Amino acid sequence: MATYDDPRILRAVAHPTRNRILSELSAAGSLRAADIARLLDVPANQASFHLRQLAKYGLVEEAPDEARDRRDRVWRLADEEGISFRTGEMLDRPGGRAAYAVFQRSAVAWGHHLVDRALAPGGDRAKSVSEHAVRLTVEESFELMLEINDVVEQWRRRTQGPGASGVADDGRRTYSVYQLIQPMPDGRPADGADDDNNNEHDDEGDD
């Protein structure tokens, strides 16, 4: 897996469209700009622009061995295992904290979007949501994360394929596997949920 500490690269992947392109390439293995345009519902020239920007930072590259001819441009991840960032080193570099703030806002917005869609009633039934509480040491939490990553990676490699139209011939489409492992927040539940429940009980007692 490629690892970076350059704030400019973090800003590049913080862009929602570019981040989605990286995800689609990870799932599919390789795609053309026209394929990405259909998947993201953006103009083909816009998809090409974002691919060139990602290529400028060495995140994607052309796959000439998969092209039909010299004019055909097929793209793939420069490192098929993905990318990661050395956050500590990057924050100490000029522009590092500002770049991380941009990335954080984008990541939080994307996380909210995924959860809102997953919990929305009706609609697409091809989704699942689960939350588990597990007692762990810090070391065990990293071990669990690696085990989950291994399972997801096995599935990614098993099902990877062009799927140029976004839905492969076997009915597959790109799924988001959103993973979060962290200690439970301290203090009361968010949004005062505990207070609301207590108020309901108090009202019943007054009748």
TrEMBL record:
InterPro entries: ArsR-like_HTH, HTH_ArsR_DNA-bd_dom, WH-like_DNA-bd_sf, WH_DNA-bd_sf. Gene3D superfamilies: Winged helix-like DNA-binding domain superfamily/Winged helix DNA-binding domain. Residues 8-91 form the HTH arsR-type domain. Residues 192-207 have a biased composition (Acidic residues). It holds the Pfam family HTH_20. It comes from the Bacteria. Transmembrane segments: none annotated. CDD domains: HTH_ARSR (cd00090). Residues 179-207 are annotated as: Disordered. This is Helix-turn-helix domain-containing protein.
